[in-house]
Amino acid sequence: MERSLSNNNQASQKLSFPIIGMHCASCARLIERQLVRTPGVLSAAVNYGSETASVEYTSDVKEEDLAKAVEGAGYRAILDQRTKDRGQRTSDEIKEEAKKKEIKELKLKVIVSSILSVLIFAGSFPEWITFVPKILSNNIVLFILATPVQFWAGWQFYLATRSGLKNRTASMDTLIAIGTSAAYGYSVWSMIFGGDKYFDTAVIIITLILLGRYLEARAKLHTSDAIRKLLALQAKTARVIRGSTEVDIPIEEVKVGDIIRVRPGEKIPVDGVITEGVSSIDESMVTGESIPVDKTVGNSVIGATINKSGTFLFKATKIGSDTMLARVVKMVAEAQSSKAPIQRLADVVSSYFVPIVLILAVLTFVIWFDFSPISSEAFKHAFTNMVAVLIIACPCALGLATPTAIMVGTGKGAEHGILIKDAESLEIANKIKTIVFDKTGTLTEGKPTVTDVISSQKLNVKSQKLLQLAASLEQGSEHSLAETIIKKTHSLKLKTQKVTNFKAIHGMGIEGEIEGKKYIFGNRALMDKEKINYKNQESRIMNLEEEGKTVMLLALRQAQGKLLGIIAVADTLKASAKDAVAMLQKRKIDVWMVTGDNERTAKAIAREAGINNVLAGVLPNEKASKVNELRIKNNVLSNWDNSKFIKHNTEPVIAFVGDGINDAPALAAADVGIAMGSGTDIAMESAGITLLNRDLNSVVSAIELSKKTLNVIKQNLFWAFGYNIVLIPVAMGVLYPFFGWLLNPAIAAFAMAASSISVVGNSLRLKSVRL
Fold first, then answer.
1. What CDD domains does the record point to (predicted)?
2. Active-site residue, from 271, 438, 590, 671
3. pLDDT(646) > 60
């Protein structure tokens, strides 16, 4: 169960929790309706595929209210608070236990029903099976054998029907209950007053449907394999330093600030920062990267990853639901329970499906009873065809078409370090036409180094003095390049000096006083503002910028300001950047780079990455507006066909890839926000997709996963719609005038069960997709 806060006009919360007892898409809609009717509930979405509900509600709604609403619909909600009162098991554990119990019960019912169905079938057609004892053909024996199948094995259909009628709705269980009860009831009537018996039809239908549900339940267990695998990664204990001793404690007892020892081969229990020692850590289970990462003092470590070599101590910084693994599990679970836009059509059709089928069944009976070509067989044809229509209709396949594919697709992504926040992001990633990359930390490693220190020849200031002054000023700065200059100073064992009257000048640089002298350090715009003459260094600055370096100028601020020197910094392009850009361009995706650097430096980096489109000199607060400008521009271009002067209604999808806090607005503004896992929590929260492995090729993999998942969804929907559109008329008898074919209700039951299983099986193919 997951809980989160939501920004709304009134304080609201979001809650996701499992539901037990759903058998079809109609069940999900019934629960949705009950939840929405609950006072204080703002919205509710129930996913049949993942068997979870996501509810947004005001603070005055209690979990008990939600549970009662679900129970009022005839199902069971598993809420953590309620389960904690009864023990220490989590909602997921209870759901898992309930699913296993359901599968065990279904298996027993299938076995018993199969044996009884074989006996009833043999007794119903003694002329076909001559070796069967005559007693099986006795009507009372057939009644005795059929009754437990109808009311024990098939009792769940009656319970669901009663619940539906209570709430003025109908589901697939209603169709099954009506169809099998009609066959069973008429057979009992015929026992007393004479006529044809349909005990075999009733029991075989129930048996085949239960078999289908059993196979479907087993198959659906595998759609949640990704979450189970992630949860299995977690360490069970931690070796914590308590005073002068080391104690092994359960992971649940670890507190923020605890010092924990990890030995070679052990799992790291929680997230933290290394305080002592060095090691090589295998992070593949979380990030998908197979090469171990070297770690030393000050480096962060992720819980559930494996320590390969050295022993080290680390300080716990995140525990419980705050750890990276817990957040990954939460994101995968939420994505699997969300609804994709493409599912809306199936939901609309499903909402009208059962009433339409009931009308068609009655219509089938009336037409065949009144117009049967063989008057003596009129009732028989009318009755069996009506039952066939009731049984063959399958809203389940429609309900499973999208969510099962989403569940497997998001799980597949998680295995490769691609976290998908919601189903909508997974669906529309395939439609990306423009993608904008932030430069620093996204296209580049985000670890710039000082490459050039050039002092003014006129003032004869030594390069080390330049660095010392610049580093002293940068001590109070939050700019990403400040740390680079300070690190360089420390590596040369230079001491920084005290700075007074420090001031950061947004988008330009910084200023401050050292030993009574005023200094400024920043870009050309700052020098122009302070009227510092740097023109004699312009050619050198341009050369550095054309090499892709960021140039900063240090000047003495006085009556006639003087340029003291130049410091150039460069960031290394990620090894995967060039290949990723090339693959995106091969897919006809327009690639852009956005940066705060000047145009010359920006174009040098873009040229190295193979990017032709550059947005340079963009301030952090302007990134989101640039994304919107590109959307408007591309929308006009894509909607207008200049060759034919025709306007199209297609709207291009724009994506933004970033990693920093200042990227969060742009990530939210884009149709698909993609955050690098090495970035900030805010960036990851704003994005629809997070790449844990920091490999830019994963951007291409995410788009490929979206394409493959959407293809499977379309195949599932085509099958689900096609199945019902073709076979319902067949069950009604439209082929009889041409070929003399009528559909046996037992075959209809088999076809209905097969349709749901085929949809789940097709979705499971995504597990074998190569990314």
1. HMA (cd00371), P-type_ATPase_Cu-like (cd02094)
2. 438
3. no
